[in-house]
Protein: Ribonucleoside-diphosphate reductase small subunit, putative
Amino acid sequence: MTDSLSTDDLSSRMKALQSEEFILVEDPNRNGLYPIKYPDFWEWYKKAQASFWTSEEIDLSSDLKDWGTLTEGEHHFIKNVLAFFAASDGIVLENLALRFLKDVKLPEAKFFYCFQITVENIHSETYSLLIEQYIRDEAEKDRLFRAIETIDAVRDKAIWAAKWMNDEKSFAERIVS
Structure:
């Protein structure tokens, strides 16, 4: 007979171990950012900062013409991908803002997560702008913007993501999911 752990047991054990996870432990002797103590986290932040862009930098002027050359199947695929990402970025933002930013204690990691929130805002804006640009039918546009309620696959992914955001899951499980 093998001794196996249920996923709930494993999750409980992982949650108990997270008190030893350095990224989650407050350093009472550290009140500011410098000196940088965790260069890997700082490097992630600086790389994210170096790749910064805004939605205004994207030239959409010829996109509508190109959109008209696509097949109905290609339209369907692109619309559903845009709808998924436009809806899902809200979930990603919530997870970053309400969970990861609250949980991590290292200033270098907090800088990275704050910047990632900004990047996710830009992504969300861009997906929405693309839907606005490509879709002329207002009812279809509304359906795509409300994809969590109107598209089964998007709703199912949103439910899955929300499952991993709750307090019962360890930090390790949430970051992997």
Notes: DSSP finds nine helices and no strands in the chain. The chain has a mean pLDDT of 85. The two ends are 31 Å apart (CA to CA).
